[in-house]
Specification:
Structural class: alpha+beta
Number of domains: 2
Radius of gyration: 24 Å
Largest sheet: 4 strands, mixed
CATH class of the largest domain: Alpha Beta
Number of strands: 4
Strand content: 25-35%
Strand order of the largest sheet: 2-1-4-3
Distance between the termini: 51 Å
């Protein structure tokens, strides 16, 4: 990807990295692969009554029920909930978590 903009530098790097003999200008262009774009984790902002308190990471395949259970079982409410119990937990998959106390 560097070759069109800095051909001399790209050629030297190509040689130093030990790629196939020949010039980088004769090499094939990198191919797009969808599997490299799939993320294993999703970062959720976790809020209490609409005020974001922290960021948590969950598996991309986690369901709303699993996320809700993980939030309620953690010490999150003890630290930020002022000793109150959660009335409702709203999980927007892939976006955020809001705990109503």
């Amino acid at each position: 990807l560097l070759s069109p903009f800095a051909p001399h530098l790209a050629e030297e790097l190509w040689e130093e990295l030990g790629h196939a003999p020949g010039s980088i200008s004769q090499a094939t262009y990198p191919e797009f692969r969808e599997e490299y774009l799939v993320e294993a984790n999703v970062t959720y902002p976790v809020a209490i009554n609409g005020k974001v308190r922290e960021q948590r990471q969950f598996a991309a395949t986690a369901t709303a029920a699993e996320i809700e259970t993980a939030i309620l079982e953690s010490d999150f409410l003890a630290r930020f909930g002022d000793g109150k119990a959660a009335k409702k937990v709203v999980v927007v998959p892939g976006r955020m978590v809001n705990v109503v106390v």
